[in-house]
Design brief:
heterodimer; A: mainly alpha; two-stranded antiparallel ribbon; 8 helices; 2 strands; about 70% helix; B: mainly alpha; 15 helices
């Protein structure tokens, strides 16, 4: 029997998709310029991840081994199309700022990786917990990166200016190098946390 | 019994310590710093220098405490980084620019493990961060003594694209009064960063470093020769190219940094060529007027690759091929 709590925590801490496995970095770097974009991306991403993990784990016993990758892609593509049309319909401005990165969720390594490695071998319940953990792990990282980048780079929080006029924001945090700096620092922090956790467990 | 003890290499030791080298380089930068202060105001530049050096030493101490790296903040390397950084920024920088720049420079060194582990020249990382973060404050150039706002000769060159007469025509058309001649470029009577303007001052420092064998001539020479050849090839004014930006300062003090440049003589020549090539390509074909910072940083990335060509222990004779 799989320990569900452990499955959930693994997605956030030990196997955090962005900071430990370091996959799916492209969307994290590109979308984390503003916090609003990052939250929108997290919602879209979680929808696709949860939907496709549930679907695949439900039909995992009837999928032929040789055809599994195309079937995974079809499931992921379906959910991506659904969320893309929803975002287009209800929030055109978010759609404009996220741009190509919503369709690109189809080829996001994290989702294919989790479907292949976890939900094609585990029960629906375990897959739900795993996808929730992975979504939260991804969300925490991208939203915190976006928050710091927005605060330091444009001097705003959720689009509202917070700096007194005599302090200049550092433009470099809006540019790609800034995203790499912050990802690097967060990787260091999470590694330190994980090391301490492993030590306390013995 | 101690006579028979066995230790691993290195066996040859000399009296040259990190602190000595850093002191020598600081001494070599001294003339440029003095000229910068004399040209742009003693208090203004002196304040920037003090802030830059103090911030560098302090942040090195703090970061070494946080990151559990053995303390070495007083060995002069941090002070040197701060000094180098301030000499490469604009003389009209507000006081917080060396503060941020020095901190970023030291951070970029410590996150890789401290002295000797950093892939990039710390001072240039600081400068690049300032340039990208505060593009307006970083590019406020003034002419010496008068402190009138002016463009650097390279900025003007982007507009004029022909020799020194063209530069003066552009200055006149912009309403400026500064007349550039080869002599004024040589003495540094132009807009530019604090330390990069006066060739004689830099030359004194560099010759001192060469004389004390702190740096080798290879990187500098191949860098400068590449720049000269490429300026001729691109049909640019060689003297203006050499004396109007940061090339000389970069070739003397930045590209020759021990940690971030290759070890073998042959690789040093390749490194110098690479920096010169990238520099001229950026100047000629990109939107930026100057590219020394980024040219050196780009070649710093390639340094480990160049050093990998050392396949066998240094000093061993070549294998004889038997056919």
């Amino acid at each position: 029997m799989i320990n569900l709590k452990q499955v959930f925590l693994r997605g956030v801490l030990q196997d955090n998709p962005v900071l430990i496995l370091m996959i799916g970095l492209c969307s994290v770097l590109a979308v984390s310029v503003t916090t609003v974009n990052a939250i929108g991306m997290t919602v879209a991403y979680s929808f696709v991840l949860i939907g496709s993990e549930l679907t695949i784990s439900a039909i995992r016993n009837v999928i032929p081994k040789t055809l599994r990758i195309p079937i995974f892609i079809i499931a992921i593509g379906t959910f991506t199309t659904i969320i893309q049309l929803i975002v287009k319909a209800y929030s055109p401005s978010l759609d404009k700022s996220l741009g190509i990165f919503i369709p690109l969720i189809v080829v996001n390594c994290i989702i294919i990786g989790r479907v292949e490695a976890f939900s094609s071998k585990n029960t629906v319940l375990a897959s739900l917990v795993d996808s929730l953990g992975m979504s939260i792990g991804y969300g925490i990282v991208i939203i915190s990166i976006a928050f710091i980048r927005e605060l330091l780079g444009s001097g705003t929080i959720f689009g509202f200016s917070v700096y007194p006029p005599f302090i200049k924001p550092m433009l470099i945090f809006v540019l790609p190098p800034g995203a790499f700096f912050i990802i690097g620092i967060e990787i260091a922090i999470l590694s330190a946390i994980n090391k301490r956790l492993a030590k306390s467990k013995g | 019994m101690n006579l028979l003890s066995i230790s691993s290499s290195p066996h040859i030791r000399s009296n040259i310590t990190t602190r000595n080298i850093m002191l020598y380089v600081c001494a070599a930068l001294f003339p440029s710093a003095i000229v910068g202060m004399a040209y742009y105001g003693w208090w203004q530049i002196g304040l920037l220098l003090v802030i830059g050096v103090l911030t560098a030493v302090l942040s090195e101490a703090i970061l070494q405490k946080i990151l559990h790296i053995p303390y070495s903040y007083l060995d002069g390397s941090a002070a040197l980084t701060g000094l180098l950084l301030v000499l490469t920024i604009s003389p009209m920088s507000p006081w917080w620019m060396p503060l941020i720049g020095s901190f970023v420079a030291i951070l970029s060194k410590q996150v890789f493990g401290g002295m000797g582990q950093n892939p990039f020249n710390p001072a240039l990382i600081g400068r690049a961060t300032l340039l990208l973060s505060f593009p307006i404050e970083s590019t406020q150039w003034v002419s010496p003594f008068t402190h009138l706002t002016t463009a650097t000769p390279l900025n003007l060159y982007k507009m004029a694209n022909f020799g020194i007469e063209g530069l003066n025509q552009v200055i006149a058309s912009l309403g400026g009064t500064l007349q550039l001649t080869y002599r004024s470029l040589l003495l540094g009577l132009r807009g530019g960063s604090i330390g990069e303007i006066c060739l004689p001052a830099m030359l004194v420092g560099f010759l001192f470093l060469l004389f004390t064998k702190v740096v080798s001539w290879r990187i500098t020479c191949s860098y400068l020769i590449t720049v000269i050849v490429l300026s001729l090839l691109f049909k640019l004014d060689v003297v203006v190219m050499l004396l109007s930006g940061g090339i000389v300062f970069g070739a003397f003090f930045m590209a020759t940094d021990y940690v971030t440049s290759p070890l073998l003589p042959k690789n040093q020549l390749i490194f110098g060529f690479g920096v010169g090539f990238m520099n001229m390509v950026i100047r000629r074909f990109s939107g930026m007027p100057e590219g020394t910072t980024f040219a050196v940083l780009i070649m710093n990335i390639i340094t480990p690759l160049l050093d990998q060509s050392i396949k066998k222990p240094v000093g061993f004779s070549k294998e004889v091929k038997q056919s």
